[in-house]
Amino acid sequence: MTFKPAPWPRKLRSQHWYGGTSRDAIYHRGWMKNQGYPHDLFDGRPVIGILDTWSDLTPCNGHLRELAEKVKAGIWEAGGFPVEVPVFSASENTFRPTAMMFRNLAAMAVEEAMRGQPIDGAVLLVGCDKTTPSLLMAAASTDLPSIVVTGGPMLNGYFRGERVGSGTHLWKFSEAVKAGEMTQDAFLEAEASMSRSTGTCNTMGTASTMASMAEALGMALSGNAAIPAVDSRRRVLAQMSGRRIVQMVKDDLKPSDIMTKVAFENAIRTNAAIGGSTNAVIHLLAIAGRVGVDLTLDDWDRAGRDVPTIVNLMPSGKYLMEEFFYAGGLPVVLKRLGEAGMLHRGALTVSGGAIWDEVRDVVNWNEDVILPAEKALAASGGIVVLRGNLAPRGAVLKPSAATPALMQHRGRAVVFEDIDDYKARSEDEALDIDETCVMVLKNCGPKGYPGMAEVGNMGLPPKVLRRGITDMVRISDARMSGTAYGTVVLHTAPEAAAGGPLAVVRDGDMIELDVAGRRLHLDVSDAELERRLASWTPSHERPESGYAWLHQAHVEGADTGADLDFLKGCRGSPVGKDSH
Question: Which of 199, 329, 349, 393 could link 218 by a cystine bridge, Cβ 3.0 to 4.6 Å?
């Protein structure tokens, strides 16, 4: 794919604020000069916004202000004018009811920060699960030249000689405590080993997945995804990204030039190869909607169906992000995809060149971490899209994290009406459930929770765990953490709170899951299903004011990315009106 750079020099958008000798230009420049900026910085050079999602309450991004200084250095070196702009930071670790509730709000806020202020390009300084997609959504909407710099994963955890993956071992140890296989004191001791350095999750959770998606889309420099947060090479990459964004502005290389349909197909295949999070589905759909690319669940199933999972990382495998980086990181995966004919080699990246040119000569330094195709964790590792009378608009499942024996299953439904019902009843010894049952959780979708929390990987009841059972089929309209595992059907659409068929499943109904056949079926007659739906009324709480009301009124279904309906495909002029 060829790209023709814009002529340089030319007048940039920041000159609408800073150029000339008018009263308004003096007003804008004069206030900036109170920080000690010399006059020649306003001479028409690229003004680069460093959109920093640092926050003390976003632990994954707690080190980003240090990286921002390296980005600034690169911008200065390339002749740009860096300005650091703190922006909305939606933390998966702390936000309630869920950070996903605020992904769209963050995207709106960042979009307006970009659109309304005098910047010519942006460095998206991100890391936590929702900060990466929300800033990519904003960049897609404004279409200003932008480059992603993620914070990088934390170091490996170790507990009593065992490699500990953030999130993945939290679920594992929690289940072990419920099963009586681990003491509470040991669980508390393990806590100290789970997050022993700054950075994002060290598993192939959503943060590392979205860092990989940014690189596969072409929106980050090659190698960005896997460098550990504390590694000096992360700082070098930040500085090089600062240099690169200045040239991107001069060339007018925009997100719409990079994030094309073929770029999204590259990302989908990459997600399959790395055993990436199911959350990538909902985020890429939303980003594509903002940039105007027609991406659907069918594209996920089509493009990712035959891609083997070759990255041996938790939760699908046994290693962590440190080993992935030492083995060669995402460039090795992209090279493997290219060699197998599964990569659009000519796809454009922020480098200004083709993605294949960046990865063709890389070396795999550990074939137990990045596996040969014949030793893949899953021969067909792409996200599976299921349909049927229980999910007319689709549901998703991650085969690399599922139990093969459960991929075709028929079982009796044990229904939880919402998350509170699940918490109240799941540990009751009187609960009528065994390992053959199908656990069903309702009202946890975009409208229902609200926000679509990561509760789809319901913990198994203690009475089942004590029998040595570690997995059951679970179905919901919720999400699950990218660090989680199990035969879990997610994002069922339409969701229960919107009157989807999931809303009327009853205890004792039989449900069929057929992954190979892409089928999810509720064994009741069409007439019975229609009768139940006709008498259904919503039971979830409906907010009456604030952003929660806006979200409830306008959020779309998981099958199209759960964005707000009035924000898709609405790119406009990024130049704000001068109010003076």
Answer: 349
- Cite the beta strand spans of 145-233 per DSSP E: 146-150, 157-159, 162-164
Q: How confident is the model over 288-311, as pLDDT tens digits?
A: 999 999 999 999 999 998 999 999
Please, what is the average pLDDT of the chain?
94
Give the pairing type, strands 408-416 and 510-514.
Answer: antiparallel
Rounded Cα distance between 173 and 406, Å, is: 23
79 close to 43: Cβ distance less than 8 angstroms: no
Contact call for residues 254 and 533 (beta carbons, < 8 A): no
Angle at 360 between CA 276 and CA 398, to 5 degrees: 15
User: pLDDT digit string (tens) for 426-463?
Assistant: 999 999 999 999 999 999 999 999 999 999 999 999 99
Residue 35 dihedral angles phi and psi, to the nearest 5° = -95, 5
- State the pTM of this model: 0.95
Within 8 A by CB and 6+ apart from 437, the residues are: 411, 412, 413, 414, 472
Helix (H) / strand (E) element for 142: namely helix 131-142
- CA angle, 551 then 556 then 562, to 5°: 85
Beta strands 510-514 and 519-522, pairing class: antiparallel
Residue 572 has pLDDT above 70, yes or no: no
Is-contact 242 72, C-beta < 8 A?
A: yes
State yes or no: pLDDT of 576 exceeds 90: no
CB–CB of 98/128 below 8 Å?
no
Q: Which run of H or of E encompasses 240?
A: helix 232-251
pLDDT score of 578: 45
pLDDT of residue 357: 97
CA angle (268 as vertex; 262, 273 as ends), nearest 5: 125
| pLDDT, tens only, 143-192 | 999 999 999 999 998 999 889 988 888 888 998 998 899 999 999 998 88
Per the listing, tokens 């704000």 go with 576
CA distances to 219, 292, 326, 381 from 311, in Å: 21, 31, 13, 10
E-assigned strand segments in 434-522: 438-441, 473-476, 488-493, 510-514, 519-522
Q: What is the mean pLDDT of residues 59-73?
A: 96
In this structure, the chain runs to a length of 580
Q: Residue 580 has what pLDDT? A: 41
Element (H, E) at 291: helix 279-291
Q: How far is CA 479 from the centre of its chain?
A: 11
CA atoms of 575 and 116, how far apart (whole Å): 7
Q: Which of 266, 267, 385, 370 minimizes the C-alpha distance to 316?
A: 370
Q: Which secondary structure element, helix H or strand E, spans residue 407, and what is its range?
A: none
Q: Is the dihedral of CA 400, 405, 409, 413 positive or negative?
A: negative
| C-alpha to C-alpha distance for 399 and 306, rounded to whole angstroms | 12
